[in-house]
Amino acid sequence: MSDYVCRICKCRAASCSALLESSLPLAADVRTTPSKALPRYPLRLVRCGSCGHIQLEGAVPENLYENYLFTPSYTADFSADMDAFCHRLNDAAGQKEHKHILEIGSSNGSLLKRLQDAGWNVLGIEPSAPLVKDAQRQGVDTIHGYFERAALAEIRKRIGTPDVVIMRHVLEHLEHLDEMIGCLRELLSDGLLVIEVPYVKNPIQENRFYDFFHEHLSYFSVTTLSRLLGIGEFYIHHIYETPEVGGSILVFADHNRDCGPDDNAAQYIQDEKDSLSEERIASFCQKVPQQISSLKAIVAEANRAGKTAAGWGAGQRGCTLIAYCGFQADNLKYVIDANENYWWKYVPGTDIPIVPPVYYKEHMVDEILIFSTGYADSIIKTNHEFEQMGGSFIKISAI
Predict the structure, then answer these.
(1) Does one domain contain both 240 and 152?
(2) End-to-end alpha-carbon separation of the chain, Å?
């Protein structure tokens, strides 16, 4: 623990021993060939003894995001989620004749395309070359690179000073949070900052140990996110909970301290003293070995009975769960995912192929375990044909 430093308050004292500790392949490292021999990296989750921030020790390889393929835009619920986001954004941004918006980590440009069609002047910045190409094919102006101080001049050249900066599911990936907040403070002197991150309370309460993986270095509560934004003198005025990636918090902030905080902010912070207490977190950790054993037993029992099984969801959570359980193709025949960027590649560290949703119709299995827990109901509803063919869906969230 000697090299531990909190990414928010810089404290060097963790409050307890590792909450989770393992060695797993990188969940986003999908390959075009079976990859049983992929490097495994330590995964050590700790909690700050001063501010309570939960984070991973260490960091992922610097070039991980240059060919990053994950995007939620292929999910069935994405359109409804974006409609709700845009409605809240328009309410918060108010009416302006010319509205300039920058999205950091803009993925394939799906959100910016919606905003552009609605009259916004948009610019994205994204480190993944494949996703930048997808965005540019949609006509969304996108800088290929990372948001850092060296990029500010190019941003101002293309869009001026933005009225709004959006960061959806970006902060949790970053090692140097203070540098990011410093760049935002420099760029956004008088504008709206919109941030969405996974809400750490949800996996703790719902025992979703697979929500903690290498690509997410930090796990935020309202308490710790407020503290981080305060470093850049950003003040939260609105907080929403959203269904994104199993439950997230969406906040709107700016430099105007006089507007006052969200009415619910104090209540969130008070509630988190209990829901994210050391006792609650310790209880979560104690249940993990039994959960892994239960999942392995379900698949092993199916295999012994001569039944075949597959998975649904090859995102980071699904791949992390597969790695914890040690599944290979003799356990799971394939894993389905809606993200076409994953198709015909392999789950990291395995010989399990990733296939399109229609694949099961020609390659029927007896059971499909749904690893995409946040989309389980939608998956079952839109794939009722699988059950009509005699198959069974298993929600791992119910195990």
Answers:
(1) yes
(2) 33
